[in-house]
Automatic annotation (TrEMBL):
Protein's UniProt name: Hydrogen peroxide-inducible genes activator
InterPro entries given in the database record: LysR_HTH_N, LysR_subst-bd, WH-like_DNA-bd_sf, WH_DNA-bd_sf
Superkingdom, natural source: Bacteria
Key word Transcription regulation present: yes
The organism of origin for this protein: Sphingomonas canadensis
């Protein structure tokens, strides 16, 4: 019987890294190997299966149609391999070993400083590696196996996932002092001037949560969407350029300190977002994720 030579996980890792980076040097850095090692590994893979997967030129790395198909399958194989290791970890101590978590930018700087010290104290054997990325990229990372779980704001469609709700995060209207009724207990959506509304740019789910809470279709058409972070939005409001929406956790973290910006709750039926921890369905580390969610909910 003829010997069957199968691709190695390392070769598949190199191929997927090259696809993600689009550049041999950056892919090699991501894999912590030299460029020549990565290139040789991919050539060995091509020789093994007898087809060209990557067209190489001086300026462009282009995957062949078959290469694209094999990359998609390689991602699934690597994810399954990770889950084999997860099975072993799940049988050991709870919340120990490595865990990769994506956190969206409208949560990370406000919640992480509160939760990380508690995690270190209660679970010192947990090595939590964090990625900050927008909701769409975070869900893509989860479904492709680059991360194990995501700290996300719902509602948001993230694919075939399980979710553990942590807490509700109210939305506030932030405005230059003196521009709106600072004595009001809350701001109604009808009181917001659509020509003055500043929101985060596309890719940030907080923008969609804010617009949905206001339930005013004209706001989507008229609002200016250009902010890349909530800190940037606050600076623009502080300079009199308009009003914006902020989550309560950002206010609790002191985002308005040393500014002349006031904030009042948004008076609306759905004036909040739900903070949740999400992970892939049927993950062998579900017990760990639910335990982590309990810790996050207590800290939140």
């Amino acid at each position: 019987m003829a010997a069957i030579y199968l691709p190695t996980l390392k070769q598949l890792q190199y191929l997927v890294a090259l696809h993600d980076a689009g550049h041999f040097g950056r892919a090699a850095e991501a894999c912590f190997v030299t460029q020549s090692t990565l290139s040789a590994g991919i050539r060995e893979l091509e020789t093994l299966i007898g087809v060209v997967l990557v067209e190489r030129t001086r300026r462009v790395v282009r995957f062949t149609p078959l290469g694209e198909t094999i990359v998609a399958k390689a991602r699934r194989v690597l994810r399954e391999a990770d889950e084999l290791a997860d099975l072993a970890r799940a049988a050991g101590r709870p919340l120990s070993g490595e865990m990769r978590m994506s956190v969206i930018p409208t949560i990370a700087p406000f919640l992480l400083p509160r939760i990380l010290p508690r995690l270190r104290e209660q679970y010192p054997d947990l090595k939590l590696f964090l990625r900050e990325e927008t909701s769409g990229h975070a869900c893509e990372s989860l479904n492709n196996g680059r991360v194990d779980c995501v700290l996300l704001a719902l509602p948001y469609s993230c694919g075939e996932v399980e979710a553990a709700p942590l807490f509700d995060d109210r939305l506030f209207v932030a405005f230059p002092e003196g521009e709106m009724d600072a004595a009001a207990l809350a701001i109604h959506p009808d009181d917001i001037d659509e020509a003055r509304l500043l929101l985060l740019e596309d890719g940030h789910c907080l923008k969609d949560h804010a617009l949905a809470a206001c339930n005013r279709p004209e706001l989507r058409a008229e609002a200016t969407m250009l902010g890349t972070s909530l800190y940037t939005m606050v600076q623009m409001v502080d300079n009199g350029l308009g009003v914006t929406m902020l989550p309560e956790m950002a206010l609790d973290a002191g985002i308005l300190e040393h500014t002349h910006v006031a904030a009042r709750p948004l008076e609306s039926e759905h004036a909040s977002r739900k903070i949740a921890l999400v992970w892939r369905k049927a993950s062998p580390r579900e017990r760990d994720f639910r335990l982590l969610a309990e810790v996050l909910a207590e800290a939140g």
